[in-house]
Amino acid sequence: MKKIIWIIVGIALIGLVIFKLASNKQTTESKVYQFDKEKPILVSSDTIRLKNLNIEGSFTGTFEPNKEVKLSAETQGKINSILVDVGDIVQKGQTLIQLDNSLLKLQLQTVEVQIEGLQDDVNRYTILTEADAVQGVQLEKAKLGLKSAYVQKATIQEQINKTTIKSPFSGIITAKLSEVGAFAAPGVPLLQITDLNTLKFTVNVAENNLNQFKQNEQYAISVDVFPTISFNGKITMIGSKANMGNSFPVQFQVENTKQLDIKSGMFGKVQLSNNKTEKGFLIPSSAILNNEGKTQVYIIENNKAKLQTITTSKNIGNKTVVINGLKERDIIVTNGFINLFDNANVITK
Questions:
Q1: Which CATH architecture has domain 69-189?
Q2: CA–CA distance from 214 to each of 60, 73, 159, 235 (Å)?
Q3: Segment 288-317, tens digit of pLDDT
Q4: Closest-CA residue to 90 (of 170, 165, 164)
Q5: Residue spans per domain, the chain
Q6: What pTM did the predictor assign?
Q7: How far apart are CA 303 and CA 185, in angstroms?
Q8: What whole-number distance in Å separates Cα of residue 190 and Cα of residue 188?
C-alpha cells in the first residue's frame, strides 16, 4: 500500500511540474512580440507620372590627382635626415630623404685601395711579361682581379646612391610617414607625393547619356567652390563596364592652373553643350533601395508591396530620374520601410 501511495504522489508531482512549465512557457510567449506577417504595414506612397526632363543639366564628379605615390627606400638603413615636410613643393630629382651610408662608404674606400694595388700589379706584370720574366697567365689573373674590383666598386656605389631618396616627379608632399632616426626598409612608406598640376575628373553617367560623351573631346567643367569659373577638360577614358549603380565612369584630364588651385577631393560639374529632352519618371531618392547590386523600389499592387528592379539616370536635387522599370501611374512606397518585405500587405497614409 505504501508503494502505491508513493507512486501516486510521484506521478502527481511530475504532473504538477509539467503543468507549471507549460504555464510558464505560455506566459513567456504572451510577453514576446510576435510579428504578424499578414498584418498590413502602414506606408507612405506616391503615384508617378511621365514627365519631360531636360537631360542637358550637369554631371557631378570629383577631382583626383593625376599621379600619387608613396615613396619607400630600396635598401635598409637608418634615416639620417628628411629634407621636406608636408605641404612642400618639390621638383623631379630633388633629394627628399638621406639614409645612413657611412658603412657603405668605408667599404667603397676599401675597394678603391684594392683597385690601386691591383692596378700596380697589372702594370708590374705587364713589364715583366714583355721581358719574358713571368708567364702571361699571371698578367691575365691580375687583369681579371682588377675587373672584379671595379664591378664591386660599382655595386657599392649603386647601394650608396640608393640611400639618397629623390622625387620621381614634381609635386607636393601630402603625407610624412616617418621621422629622423627611424629605420627604413623596402616596402615601408616614408613620404607621399601628389602631382596636382594635372588632375583627373571622374563622373558617373547612365547608359542612355553615355553617347553624349566622345573620346578626346573637350567639355566645360566647373568647380563647386568656384562656380563662376569654367575651364575645359578632355575625355581620356570612357568606362566599358558599369558599376553597381548601373552607370559608367567617364574621366577627364584637367590642367590645374594657379588661378584655379583645385584640391584633390573637391567636387565639380561637367556641362553638356547640347540641349535635349526625354521622357522619364522623377521619384524621391529615398524610395530607392540597393539589394544585392540591384536598384529597386517597392510598388503597390492590390494592397501588396512588390519589389521592382529599375534603371536610374541621374539625380536632380533629392530626386532621381528613372528611365526603365516603371510605368505611368505606378504607386511606389516612399516611406515606412521598417518591417516591409516583398509581397507584404500594406495600407497607405
A1: Beta Barrel (2.40)
A2: 18, 42, 49, 7
A3: 988 877 889 999 999 999 999 998 877 776
A4: 170
A5: 41-55+278-348, 58-66+194-275, 69-189
A6: 0.56
A7: 66
A8: 6
